[in-house]
Amino acid sequence: MTLELIAVGGVLGIALGIFGAWARTSGPRALRAVFGAYVELIRNTPFLIQLFFIFFGLPSIGIQMTELEAASLAMVINLGAYSTEIIRAGVEAIPRGQIEAGQCLAMTRLQIFRHIILRPALQKIWPALSSQVVIVMLGSAACSQIAVEDLSFAANFIQSRNFRAFESYFIATGIYLVLAILLRQVMRGIGLMLFPAKVPR
């Protein structure tokens, strides 16, 4: 379950972050305002409150979802906000001359963002983005509070049955450590595939 949360939250969260970065740098003014408010709201409120709002608050207005769906949505929204700002920093580091060259070729804002800006921007911020994905993965432990049967839920369940809290949480800590290291390596591998280092001649 923890791996599923990582996969869904990571992929969709980064995709949302890419769209958010485009919206905040090249999108229409109204969309900039919407994403600006979204980023400020998510980055300045606790993840646990966001999770509770989605799982307990939304049903009061008729939006029902399972524990896993609520946890996945919360992770996507949370990572999306943080990755929006990380990717935006990379976008703003792209030399203005490259963007002006695209404008001279009559490319649209979306075409410029896709073909000229996005790849080098991601290359610049990939380590920071990878670290943020790991942070969100570790934050998924809070999802056990809405009965998502992830790793932390399993540790709580086991220690409540045998009262061996030290062993249960020690093993859970070790597993989270291994997951974090593996996830960082996976992100590094993806980065090497997307942005292969140029071999000097």
Describe the protein in words.
- The chain has 201 residues and is an all-alpha fold.
- The chain has one domain: Orthogonal Bundle (MetI-like fold).
- The chain has helices at residues 2-25, 29-43, 47-57, 67-92, 96-104, 109-139, 151-162, 165-194.
- Helix 1 (2-25) crosses helix 4.
- The longest helix is centred in the middle third of the chain and has 31 residues, at 109-139.
- The termini are far apart.
Notable characteristics:
201 residues, mainly alpha, MetI-like fold, 8 helices, 79% helix, flat
CATH class placement: Mainly Alpha
Task: Please describe the biggest sheet, giving its number of strands, its sense, and whether it closes into a barrel.
Answer: none
CATH homologous superfamily heading: MetI-like
- Strand content is under 5%
Mean pLDDT: 91
From the coordinates shown, what is the CATH architecture? Orthogonal Bundle
Number of strands: 0
Describe how the helices and strands are arranged.
Layout: H1 2-25, H2 29-43, H3 47-57, H4 67-92, H5 96-104, H6 109-139, H7 151-162, H8 165-194
Helix pairs in contact: 1-2, 1-4, 1-6, 2-4, 3-4, 4-6, 5-6, 6-8, 7-8
